[in-house]
Design brief:
Elements (H helix, E strand, L loop, with lengths): L4 E4 L5 H10 L1 E4 L8 H7 L5 E4 L7 H7 L5 E4 L9 H6 L3 E3 L6 H16 L2 H10 L20 E5 L3 H10 L6 E5 L4 H6 L3 E2 L2 H7 L2 E4 L13 H6 L5 E4 L8 H10 L4 E4 L19 E3 L8 H20 L10
Parallel strand pairs: 1-2, 1-3, 3-4, 4-5, 6-7, 6-9, 7-8, 9-10, 10-11, 11-12
Helix pairs in contact: 1-12, 5-7
The structure holds (2R)-2,3-dihydroxypropanoic acid.
(2R)-2,3-dihydroxypropanoic acid (DGY) binds next to loops.
Keywords: Oxidoreductase
Pfam families: 2-Hacid_dh, 2-Hacid_dh_C
InterPro entries: D-isomer_2-hydroxyacid_DH, D-isomer_2_OHA_DH_cat_dom, D-isomer_DH_CS, D-isomer_DH_NAD-bd, NAD(P)-bd_dom_sf
């Protein structure tokens, strides 16, 4: 019996790729770069399955080109903004994703960014190599902001938000606030108080965006939001770059409306080298490495492969997208 033909838009770590190659005939993008739209359109012609990753769009045009043979779409991500779920559902195409297995890694990245930002590590690293290694300066040389007795506001207390809060708790955080929907038992695990978005902005020392992106929260963190935050607040985003109006963030950081920002996500990605945010010492940017531990990436690859294969077999997916 011939193996199902699948397109892989970005090769996953071996644990996932081996599973896929065992069961499928694979056409894969093996270069270490983002796939172009043209390559995506050419790659999916007549396939039964697609393994993808944001930002590789699986939209109506891609689904049309893949044609009626397409049964299974699997993304190696928790984010789903690149997939037209409505079209997939209408065509009876199963869609799998990889929540859960990347929660801990992404929470670690969020905490790392928060500490790097609050303890001014960007300036500290530069000082060491650029000859700026200072002394005492009245005891305030490279002093930063502490989590001790702080209020942390989490926008989107989902799996990742909760995992972040649990890791921050031992640093002596006094209070957790959150906005958006969550499960009551998750909020009570960290004794978090539900407040309006405005109140969260006004009362938090650290504002952390952990929400998933949707059409209503694009540009949520804009001039108006930053103006409601404390002057010494730190903003962290490990969700999606489009949640932030980056021009407004630049102004807020430059003018001292807020103290600092740590971003693992930007819009676009990569953020061009000449982008003004790079010029700010109070803005730490990492290249979307939220889930980048070997453990998490292998687990994501395995789950994505299993989702893809289950969809091809017409079986229940280990991790289907809720429809
Ligand atoms: C995800 O899983 O959505 C991560 O952001 C990687 O894209």
């Amino acid at each position: 019996m011939s193996k199902p033909f699948v397109f892989v838009s970005r090769v996953p770590p071996p644990r996932g790729m081996e599973l896929i190659e065992e069961f499928c005939t694979v056409k894969a993008m093996r270069d270490d770069r983002f796939i172009t739209r043209q390559e995506m359109l050419e790659g999916v012609v007549g396939v039964e399955g697609i393994l993808c990753h944001p930002p590789d769009k699986v939209d109506k045009e891609v689904l049309d080109i893949a044609g009626k043979s397409l049964k299974s779409v699997s993304t190696m991500s928790v984010g789903l903004e690149h997939i037209d779920l409505t079209e997939c559902k209408a065509r009876g195409i199963s869609v799998g994703y990889t929540p859960g297995v990347l929660t801990d890694a992404t929470a670690e990245t969020t905490v790392s960014l928060l500490l790097a930002t609050s303890r001014r590590l960007k300036e500290a690293f530069s000082a060491v190599v650029d000859g700026g290694w200072g002394t005492w300066e009245n005891g305030l040389y490279l002093c930063g902001k502490t989590l001790l007795e702080s209020t942390v506001g989490i926008v989107g207390l989902g799996r990742i938000g909760l995992a972040v809060a649990k890791r921050l708790q031992p640093f002596g955080v006094q209070k957790f606030l959150y906005s958006g929907n969550t499960k009551k038992e998750w909020a009570s695990e960290i004794n978090a108080e539900f407040v309006s978005f405005e109140r969260l902005l006004g009362e938090s020392d650290f504002v952390i965006a952990c929400c998933s992106m949707n059409k209503d929260n694009m540009g949520l963190f804009n001039k108006s939001a930053f103006s409601k935050m404390k002057n010494n607040a730190i903003f962290i985003n490990t969700s999606r770059g489009v949640l932030v109006n980056q021009e407004d963030l630049y102004d807020a950081l430059k003018l001292g409306t807020i103290l600092a920002a740590g971003l693992d996500v930007t819009s676009p990605e990569p953020l061009p080298r000449e982008h003004p945010l790079h010029t700010l010492k109070n803005c730490v940017i990492t290249p979307h490495i939220g889930s980048a531990t070997v453990y998490a990436r292998n687990a994501m690859a395995e789950l994505a492969a299993k989702n893809l294969i289950a969809g091809l077999k017409g079986k229940r997916l280990p991790s289907p997208v809720p429809q």
